[in-house]
Write a structure and sequence with these properties.
Blueprint (H helix, E strand, L loop, with lengths): L2 E2 L7 E4 L2 E4 L1 H7 L21 H19 L1
Antiparallel strand pairs: 1-2, 2-3
């Protein structure tokens, strides 16, 4: 993946032409927008089912893979 991280105070990074907001930025916004943001700190609270469940499962799978690597 070709991603260019911006300065620490920037609210996003560019991932293959997509803007991905950081968890800190999303947290400072104060609510889940319901769009399924990659770094959502609200566990996708406002994302409709079944997409919410799929996103939570994907996050859990990624976290368990990261733990295995460590």
């Amino acid at each position: 993946m070709n991603r260019k991280l911006l300065d620490d105070d920037e609210p996003y990074f560019n991932s293959d032409g997509l803007v991905v907001f950081t968890a800190d930025y999303l947290l400072s916004r104060g609510y889940c927008c319901g769009n399924g943001c990659r770094n959502c700190p609200y566990d996708y609270k406002n994302v409709p089912e079944p997409k919410r469940t799929l996103l939570l499962e994907k996050r859990e799978d990624e976290n368990s893979q990261d733990e295995k690597k460590a």
